[in-house]
Amino acid sequence: MTVALASDTTVAWSERNQRWLVSRFAALRECIPDRAAKPFREMPEDDEQDFVPALQRCAELFGLSRFERDVLLLCAGVALDAGLADAVARAGGHAQGRPTFPFAMSLLEAPHWDALSPQAPLRHWQLLHLDGALPTEAALRIDERMLHYLSGVAAIDERLDGMVELVAPPDAEAEAEPAAWIAQVVATFAMGGDCVQLQRTGEAPGRDDVLQLLAATGRHGVWVRDLPEDPVVLAPTLRLVDREAALSAALVVLDLRGPTPRLDRIAPQLRSPLLVLAAADTDIGATPGLRSVWLPAATPASRARELAVRARRFGASLPAEALETAVAEACEQFAPGSGRALDDAARAIAGAGDAGDARQRAWAALREHSREGLDRLAQRIESTTTLDDLVLPPAQAGLLADIGRQLQQRRRVYRDWGFAGKGARGLGIAALFTGESGTGKTMAAEAIANAAGLDLYRIDLAGTVSKYIGETEKNLRRIFDAAEASGAVLLFDEADALFGKRSEVKDSHDRYANIETAYLLQRIEAYRGLAILTTNMKGAIDKAFLRRIRFVVQFPFPDEAARDALWRRQFPAQAPLSEDIRWPSLARMPLAGGNIRAVALNAAFIAAHEDVPIAQRHLAAAAHAELAKLERSPGPQGGAHT
């Protein structure tokens, strides 16, 4: 990502900056042969008063002396100008063409030894580095990020990858008068406040609120998250964050909603204006000078009202009140906060012919926007499976229907009928699906999600559990925080990875494993959607955990009648089938639904290759291969034969 430093002149700023650097490098080359008698002096200022080269801005930002500024120029020159590097090498600098500090002192005017101290700007801000043991003998090397900056390119330092994102102010029509909370933030910083926490009753402020602030102020944001806990690593990382904010003329946005050290360990080490985002229950620590700015509470009703207004602005013909009623359910389910999400949904419903059409369009548009956070953390499963597609005994089918009903009626029961009470604990719908592989656990989850019009995300618990203490909890927090935006159905595979029977706590790893399990249960119980855990081994699940799961559904291995139904449902209407297929013979083979699906698909490929309809012999060949893979015999009467 690049920050433009352009001026209004006809020549682009970057071209002028390049010419300026080339002229300074040439002047340095001329001074080197006779540096004792003729040191490098500051050249006359550029005639164009509206042009400020990147080096001059850098000097102002970090308080560089004239000598320190020219040392940085020299180090940039040997990195960008081969002729200058060659001249430095010939004149007794480093063999690779990089200058030493004594060489810089002999070449540049107004030298001072303390420019190389660790506390001085050049080293404190990591503008350059020393390649060598002794500072007086080491070669000076410009920091790569600073080299890019002086060249006019503002790419984020790679050492901050995964922790820092440069966020540009969005393009938006300027409001006649900014929101009151934005004016309060601006005034707080203007009066010398350097740390502001955004707060909102009911939910934590998020990215969309920050974008609104950036749009109103025209500033960039350096978004910081997932900082290291180790204080030895944290200090230099924060220094780089501070440097990034200075170079980008940006506000530091500290996101404490994920695994990041407390604010009281971070704020004292930053000099840039700091905007803090944190969940209401986050312990950020006592931080002197921290000021809170409260944002108006966003409610489903206010979101629906705003969406209706925007839809009318985009040409919707339905009355505002009818639109507001039509989109209310979608706004409550997906809680759109960003102007982009609301605008996209408003455009979608602007062409709706009636309230029902508007309802469907709003649901689809806001559902798509709600995926952004969770898509990066889990696998979204696309499926058109319905409950009618499942082949299960009546008891299991009834349980799945009960789960679907609770998912669809939770707002009425919890909110309208008051069952939510004063707390969220126990309000999440948790289900455990147990049974052999291929018995339909994932298909059942797909069917429930589709019936509710929600996305289904698969989370591999075995992959989420980390050997590093505390990392599992961080991984789970990211997933649930992202999922809260949509109430998506979460499918946790291999639940026994965390919910296995507990043994005696013998060391810190056992203790943290129990903490991680308790944390997952806590988040599931408070989650506003449905969380489904699956396991092939119900007996491996601790009974204490089972008591906290609302639904437990055992998926049995299908009997012969069920297998007959499963076989007949595998083939689409357009698939060509031979009349010789013997369904009862196929049903006698001991295969679960997932295996039957695999056999049908493999047989279809064999038939397609032969350019003939799918026949018994194709199914027999594919079935025997599947049984061999499972190390099972064909079953009574030999199963399927050619």
What is the structure about, briefly put?
This protein is an alpha/beta fold and 642 residues long.
Keywords for this entry:
642 residues, alpha/beta, Rossmann fold, six-stranded mixed β-sheet, 27 helices, 14 strands
Give your account of this protein's structure.
It holds the Pfam family WHD. This protein has a 6-stranded mixed sheet, sandwiched between helices. It is of the alpha/beta class. 47% of the residues lie in helices and 10% in strands. The longest helix is centred in the middle third of the chain and has 23 residues, at 394-416. The chain is built from 27 helices and 14 strands. The chain folds into 5 domains: 13-155, no CATH class; 159-295, Rossmann fold, CATH 3.40.50; 300-369; 381-554, P-loop containing nucleotide triphosphate hydrolases (Rossmann fold); 560-638, Helicase, Ruva Protein, domain 3 (Orthogonal Bundle). The radius of gyration is 32 Å and the shape is elongated. Strand 6, helix 11 (263-266) and strand 7 (274-277) form a beta-alpha-beta unit.
